[in-house]
Amino acid sequence: MVHVSIINKSPHETPAYQTSGSSGMDLRAWLPEPVTLKPMERKLIPTGLYMALPEMYEAQIRPRSGLSIKRGLTLVNTPGTIDSDYRGEIMIPLINLSTEDQVVNDGERIAQMIVAKYEKVVWNEAETLEETQRGAGGFGHSGV
Predict the structure, then answer these.
(1) Does residue 143 surpass a pLDDT of 70?
(2) Cys staple from 24: which of 19, 61, 112, 138, with CB 3.0 to 4.6 Å?
(3) The CATH homologous superfamily of the domain defined by 23-117
(4) How buried is residue 48: exposed, middle or buried, by Cβ count under 10 Å (0-12/13-18/19+)?
(5) pTM over 0.85
(6) In terms of DSSP bridges, do strands 49-52 and 25-28 run parallel, antiparallel, or are they unpaired?
């Protein structure tokens, strides 16, 4: 386990794992009043959460599958990344992909967060790369 300092300015519970097998923690909207998103509209939704991740860790912000499939609410960029040196409020960039207005209420679970370790890369300039069976095959290269 990794220990992370967090400030929760909202009246809502601090993010927690819902089950022993959960990889993500739900994030809740912190709103003075409900926010309406029209079809294809996007807005930043505050959470009231601030954290200090350790070096070599990131937080990945991902959509909640139920919210996406049931109401068409998802994230503009997914996964979103929170770097270890960011100290501002965690804001969720929601977009309404449905054909109807969608209302987001205070305390509603709007995204999930996964904290993950990552590695830094050191580039080694090269003239050629080792060959593989796949080679330069890209999107759809392996057939149906």
Answers:
(1) no
(2) 112
(3) Deoxyuridine triphosphatase (dUTPase) (2.70.40.10)
(4) middle
(5) yes
(6) unpaired
